[in-house]
Structure formats: structure tokens, C-alpha cells
Write a structure and sequence with these properties.
344 residues, five-stranded parallel β-sheet, 47% helix
């Protein structure tokens, strides 16, 4: 139970800051209390057009992960996206699946969202063994999102079977990574003789904002933000820079539903994502907003947090969250209506 309050020290805004926010002293005072004391800082916080985001390559591991994915697509590898069942996991999975299918063949990109009741979070060994033994789709590469950073045994098993493994996650680092310095130590791509048979460091690439320095603008990204930065870098490598912007509607859903700290790049992506959400052409998302009685052109964080997000979260708690990924990636309007009705 919370037994005390932490009060932000009062701050008196400058006349310039008050003028910047249209003469509203309360807004200016709240901004100043949070450290946005100059007109330039306030402008960048309130308007994404004045914010300069970090380039995708500034996120540790993104450059290597994108290069590996680029090679896998060129070599027509089978890619299995392994997600999680909360809304951040659902949107991360949907974003990666939609992007990779756009760059590849639909049949070469599959996904798995764990069932909360039979698997729980992460890459469970029995399910991974099933995927490895599947004659219809044996993956060459496993790409995780919003999960995987603590799944050392599963990473070891996948590597022992010759798979390429890319971990993208935003959860706290395991002890063997916490003691490492990314500027000095090699984090991933290690062999079993050096780090042991069961080590997440055997992954071919690891992308996690917790590897960034304290106060880094990328450190508060949720799973869907990490996935988006990776896809940004990949699309750039493929000569299709900018095409990924229509995936920002999924980013907005994940950021709000995951209650991510909305500062720096996370806030910037949310602001852009809300704009994209209001003009989305995503078939399943439009069907979901229809059953949730949300008008696309007026959608805001409240609509996500209290209407769209709870319907998606309900799948994870009551049924199968993979329904949400199918909904968010389908181009079939009839199927989208069926899935949205099932979710409702």
C-alpha cells in the first residue's frame, strides 16, 4: 500500500514559457515542474514536428539485427515471430509479421503467441520443440518481440538446432547481462564454449533498451517501440525507407496499453501513432473500432486505454491472444469482422 506521496517541487515558469503555451499559466507551470523550462523544450514535448528522434541505429543491437533479417529475407528463410499475449506483445507481433510479409512471401513468415494458460510468458521448451518438429513450417530464424531476454534455455536449444535467433525485448535484463557494459563487452553472438550451453548471449542479436545508458531517449521504449525501430532500420536497408510509417497505428496501441513512460522517443512515436491511427486503413483495426464504438477520426489515448485495449487484453485472459494478431494483420474484411466479433 502507498503510504506517502512524492511531491514535485513547485516551479515558476518564465514569461516566455507561458507565452509559448498560449498564455496558459497552469500548463506552463506543469511543464516547468517536469523539467521543460524553455520554449524550445516545451515545443519539442508538445509537438512532434519539433522533436528530433534518435536514429534506429542508436538502439543497441538494431544494426546487427536488421542486417541479419535482411540476409534472411534475401535467402528466403522461414521466419517465426515469437511474441507475447498482452497488448504490447500483440501489437509487436502484428507489426513485425505485417512488415516482414510485406518484404517477403506470406508463407515464409509465421508467428506464435503463447497461451497464457498452457504456456505462460516466454519461449517454453515444449512448444519450441513442437515448432522445430513441424514438417509444414520449420523456422530458420526465430525473432522474438516483447519477450525472450530471460529465455536462456530456449535460445540454447534453438542454436543447437542450427537456427538464427534475434531477441527483441524491453523487460529487465537477466543477471548475466546486467554486469556487462555494451560499450566494452560483447553482448550477443557468443559461442557455447564461452558462455555455456544455455545462455541468451548465444543469440545472434539482442535488442533491448535496458542496454542503453540511463536517461537515454530510447530507454523507455516498450516492446512495440523496439520492434518499430528494428523495422525502420530494416526498411532503410531494403531501400524502402519511410514505408514503415503506416505501422505507427500499432505502435500507438502498444504504447498506451502498456502504460509506457511517455517521454522522449516513446512519446514522439505515440504522437505520430495517434495521427496514423485516426486515418488507419488497417482492415482488422477498423473492424475492432466499429465493435468498440470508437470513431477512427477521434481516437485518443482514452479510447485506446478504455475501449480498444481492454478488448485485446481480454483475449489474453480469457482465450487465445493469437486471434488479435490475425485480426491486426488480415486484409480480408469478412474475416476481420468475424474476429472482431469474437473478441467482443
Amino acid at each position: 500500500m502507498l503510504d506517502h506521496w512524492t511531491l514535485v517541487a513547485p516551479a515558476e515558469p518564465s514569461p516566455e514559457l507561458v507565452a509559448e503555451v498560449g498564455g496558459h499559466p497552469l500548463v506552463a507551470r506543469l511543464l516547468a515542474q517536469r523539467g521543460y523550462t524553455t520554449p524550445a523544450q516545451a515545443r519539442a514535448f508538445l509537438d512532434p514536428a519539433y522533436y528530433t528522434p534518435a536514429p534506429p541505429g542508436a538502439l543497441y543491437g538494431v544494426t546487427e539485427a536488421a542486417r541479419i533479417l535482411h540476409d534472411a529475407l534475401r535467402n528466403r528463410a522461414n521466419i517465426l515471430v515469437w511474441g507475447d499475449f498482452d497488448v504490447d506483445g500483440q501489437t509487436s507481433t502484428s507489426l513485425l509479421v505485417a512488415a516482414l510479409r510485406r518484404l517477403s512471401n506470406d508463407h515464409r513468415v509465421s508467428f506464435h503467441v503463447p497461451n497464457r494458460f498452457t504456456e505462460s510468458h516466454g519461449i517454453r521448451i515444449p512448444m519450441l520443440e513442437q515448432k522445430l518438429a513441424d514438417p509444414n513450417f520449420r523456422p530458420d530464424l526465430i525473432l522474438t518481440c516483447d519477450t525472450g531476454i530471460t529465455d536462456a534455455a530456449a535460445v540454447g536449444l534453438a542454436k543447437d538446432h542450427g537456427l538464427t535467433v534475434i531477441i527483441t525485448d524491453h523487460h529487465d535484463l537477466p543477471p548475466d547481462l546486467q554486469s556487462l557494459d555494451p560499450q566494452r563487452d560483447r553482448i550477443f553472438g557468443m559461442d557455447a564454449a564461452t558462455v555455456g550451453q544455455e545462455s541468451v548471449r548465444r543469440a545472434d542479436a539482442i535488442v533491448n533498451p535496458k542496454l542503453q545508458p540511463e536517461n537515454d531517449p530510447l530507454r523507455t521504449l516498450p516492446g512495440v517501440g523496439v520492434a518499430y525501430k528494428l523495422i525502420q532500420e530494416l526498411f532503410c536497408l531494403m531501400g524502402r525507407e519511410g514505408e514503415e510509417r503506416d505501422l505507427l497505428d500499432l505502435v500507438a496501441l502498444g504504447i498506451v496499453a502498456d502504460v509506457a513512460t511517455q517521454v522522449h522517443d516513446a512519446r514522439y512515436l505515440l504522437q505520430l501513432g495517434l495521427e496514423q491511427l485516426r486515418r488507419t486503413r488497417r482492415t482488422g483495426l477498423l473492424a475492432l473500432m466499429e465493435v468498440a464504438r470508437v470513431a477512427p477520426e477521434t481516437v485518443d489515448p482514452e479510447a485506446i486505454g478504455f475501449h480498444i485495449g481492454p478488448r485485446m487484453n481480454a483475449l489474453a485472459r480469457l482465450e487465445d491472444a493469437s486471434v488479435a494478431v490475425e485480426l491486426l494483420t488480415t486484409r480480408d474484411a469478412i474475416r476481420a469482422g468475424q474476429l472482431a466479433g469474437r473478441m467482443e
